[in-house]
Amino acid sequence: MGLDIIKVFGIIATTPIISYRKMNILPNLIYKYKPISQRLVTSLLPTKTNNSLETITTFLTFSLAILSLLIIVGSTGSQVQQTISPLVASLNTKLHQTTTAKKQYQVYGYAPYWTFDKLDNVDFSTLTTLAYFDIKLNADGSLQTDDPGYTTFMSDQATTTFQKAHDAGAKVNVTVSLMQNNDILAFLDNPQAQEQASNQIIQQVKNRGIDGVSLDVEYAGNPGADYQKKFTSFVQTFSAKLHSQVPDSQVTVAVYAGSARDQQLYDLGKLAQSTDAIFMMAYDFATSSAENAQPTAPLYGYKKGKYPYDVATAVDDFLKVMPANKLILGVPYYGYNYPVSQPEVKSQTLSYWASPAVQTYSIAQENVTAQTQAAYRSGWDDDAKVSWRAYQDSATGTWRMIFLEDEKSLGIKYDFAKSKNLAGVGIWALGFDEGHRELWSLLREKFGTNLADSRGAL
Fold first, then answer.
1. In 3-state terms, what secondary structure has residue 112?
2. Residue 318's pLDDT is what?
3. How far is CA 187 from CA 47, 141, 176, in A?
4. What is the rounded CA–CA span in Å between residue 13 and residue 457?
5. What are the tens digits of pLDDT across the range 313-327?
6. Which residue in 435, 413, 432 sits closest to 424, CA to CA?
7. pLDDT digit string, tens, across residues 103-143
8. Are 149 and 116 in contact (CB under 8 A)?
9. Total number of domains constituting the chain
């Protein structure tokens, strides 16, 4: 008996805590100690009936398992709490929420499912939150499980990416989207749909062992005060429920840059009170339909009358109704490539002659350069604080022009965000800079790393 007891406590004392990160602790301990308990009971009580032996064995097994668990908890504290909740299966790998200390600024990046094979350059130690995009929501509150956004979210590829983010100290959120006006109104009119959506979304967070949710509900126009109140109520209820069921989780709401100026779906002040952050989509100030070539995210220019609105004015408008430390400034890793009459700022676009196109940072870096174009020009919009490039299409003879965020313009925007004491900056979208590291070097320079923060070096 003495030797078996020593073996039992030797196993308890020497079992590495890391082994419990990939299993449900108590059932595993029961499984581990049952054969030992059987040997002990049989050797000590050989005259007992089988029923009695089984009862005593079960009692001893549970006692040893509980004792082991208490010893582990007592010796490791919060480390074990991290491994216990949540411990959930994700295909062949188990993920758990990250507990890296929060650094001063957020670097929040959306990762669309269609760029998931283009994330090799992502610096996860600089990124604070990877926001997977997206799981689509139906008007009845159900999730579109047959959509590629959902199937990619449930894939081994996503599991590997989420784990890579967690290992580097970044959190993982899932973006739940609802885009069509009629569907949004139907959803907000249906309390049962909202409850179903909340339950299914939270279950996905638990099942995948991730850290939160980004709500991306984009109503085009003004739905009216009643629907604004309904949306606010839904977000408040959902946020409280997620925070209750998944401690230390995040809820972020993505909103249009004009949300403070114009009556829209979003009551920014109340949304900021009930969530962890508001993500301002500070882009698409100009789109492919613009009559004059201009940047999609001009920092300034509104006060001079050059542009109808700009990022700086939008931020000032937001800060009149919500706190700065809840606002994430989103930046675009893309631009609009316009056919223009002349390669100059505010040149007339020629959409009747050729189609505008959206180009990501990586595409523009590879194709719109002096090396790749025979007739090439470049410049700087000092009001917008954005670079531009232009080239002559050899097939049509038409000039094309793109305003593109680069190290210079993004550095100015990041300094602006810090000067306003914002929560941080965000990226639409990860993968749009495929094959390039310079924008990550800039982010690291401006905002530091997660690992440095967890060591207290920032």
1. strand
2. 98
3. 68, 7, 13
4. 34
5. 999 999 999 999 999
6. 413
7. 799 999 999 999 999 999 999 999 999 999 999 999 999 99
8. no
9. 2
Provide the token pair at 430. Answer: 């990860």
The dihedral region occupied by 248, where left means phi > 0, alpha psi between -120 and 50, and beta the remainder, is: left
Q: Which residues of 85-118 are buried (b: 16+ CB within 10 A; e: fewer)?
A: ebbbebeeebbbbbebeebebbbbbbbbbebbeb
Indicate whether 13 and 119 sit together in one domain.
no
3-state secondary structure at position 333: coil
**Domain stops at, among 29, 58, 84:** 84
DSSP 374: S
> 3-class DSSP state for residue 215?
strand
Give the residue from 337, 317, 324 showing the smallest Cα distance to 262: 317
| Domain co-membership, 104 together with 79 | no
Same domain, 324 and 228: yes
Range of the domain at 444: 93-333+409-454
Low-confidence ranges of the chain (pLDDT < 50): 1-36, 38-51, 53, 62, 68-92, 101, 452-458
Based on the fold, state whether residues 277 and 326 are members of the same structural domain: yes
Neighbours of 391 (CB within 10 A): 23
pLDDT of residue 362: 98
For 220-275, give the DSSP string. -S---HHHHHHHHHHHHHHHHHHHHHSTT-EEEEEEETTTTTS--S--HHHHHHHS
The radius of gyration of the chain's CA atoms, rounded to the nearest angstrom, is 27
**Pairing relation of β-strands 334-340 and 357-360?**
antiparallel
Residue 392 forms part of a structural domain: no
Sign of the alpha-carbon dihedral angle for 441, 442, 445, 448: negative
Give buried/exposed letters for 183-196 (b at 16+ CB in 10 A, else e): bbbbbbebeebbeb
455: left (phi over 0), alpha (psi -120 to 50) or beta: alpha
Q: Are residues 126 and 256 in the same domain?
A: yes
Locate the DSSP E strands across 11-105.
88-90, 93-95
Secondary structure E strands in 106-257: 106-112, 129-136, 171-178, 212-217, 250-256
Q: Which DSSP letter does residue 96 get?
A: -
The answer to whether the CB of 387 falls within 8 A of the CB of 403 is: yes
Half-sphere exposure of residue 13: CA atoms within 13 angstroms, side-chain side:
6
pTM: 0.79
281 neighbors 255 (Cβ within 8 angstroms): yes
Asked if residue 294 belongs to a domain, the reply is yes
DSSP type of residue 347: P
Separation of alpha carbons 228 and 125, rounded Å: 37
Helix (H) or strand (E) holding 359: strand 357-360
